[in-house]
Amino acid sequence: MKIERLQTIVTCPGRNFVTVKITTSDGVHGLGDATLNGRELAVRAYLEEHVFPCLVGRDPRDIEDIWQYLYRGAYWRRGPVTMTAIAAIDMALWDILGKLAGMPVYRLLGGRSRAGLMVYGHANGRDHEEAVDEVRRHVEAGYQAVRVQSGVPGLDKVYGVGPAAGFYEPAQKGLPPEERWDTALYLRHTPELFRKVREAVGPDVHLLHDAHHRLTPIEAGRLGKDLEPYRLFWLEDPTPAENQESFRLIRQHTTTPLAVGEVFNSVWDCKDLIREQLIDYIRSTLVHAGGITHLRRIADYAALYQVRTGFHGATDLSPVCMAAAVNFGLWAPNFGIQELMPHSALTDAVFPHAYRFDKGFLVMDDEVPGLGVEIDEALAAQHPYERAYLPVARLRDGAMWNW
Prior knowledge:
36% of the residues lie in helices and 18% in strands.
């Protein structure tokens, strides 16, 4: 059996996705997600011009060797474009292997560790009252864990909050919009938000919050301390993590659990954070951190230090990646929680899948071979690529800030 054909499928059923499809000489095919938000065509070019020609004729069952070939065999390692491309190939090969074995991928990884994945939803409000209402709505829908974001008085736009209640999509068509940011206003506003939420829903709902890299380490420590009375499940991305040592300062000032890593590309980005137990949850994604093969190593390393998984799961990941994440989470012994931003009905139609939401958990039908996801290529072709970007953050004086 050999790899016979590799192709990318770019589609925009409301937002852009890049999918890799690998077909073998026996006619078995596998899918992988190659979406890199705002840089989608860079990954497509990397795959089509530099990766695909090297894989034709190889045995698709040699997943480990192909991963090492694409990573160690290239002088220019890591980075989001390279690791997203490797992840897409890796997912597709695991999908093929599962179909050949007639088993779901989680069986190939070692079988189930749990019946389903606890997920958290996104409750977003333009003010405190709207955010509280959205938390109630999520709890009524069955969520046991909810991320809470709110508008800040004095700022026109805030990360995590859309122009209307409900669904939030950060990628916007056209060139990147610019938004103003004021940390002092945010730090005054956020603890009061969680006081109101706790009063509304009580102590049993898991509450999460995303600071989205906007804080310095000492500011993050102060926010974490201010939020301690409300027992957050985690505070996500409190400060940019390029400097892993900065989390030592945060740890000195708060016991609020910390989560980080959705922009990480390899174990080297989180090695010290995990080894020194400076975080509680690793957020790396299957699509941006080298696929199942590499993320399994990150999870196993994290387990040595009682760090659990909490993978990114926003709408910039296609249902292909979400299907892989469900398989991975069903297996991972140190699974913690899975983010879930539901895709649109159109996206779900383009990518029919076997996983589903059930009373606060993502579950998957037993014994669906491979990843349990497909693509409707005819429908995908009806929705061509549209340039879209995440916003850009600037301080009130116009200086660039962290997105």
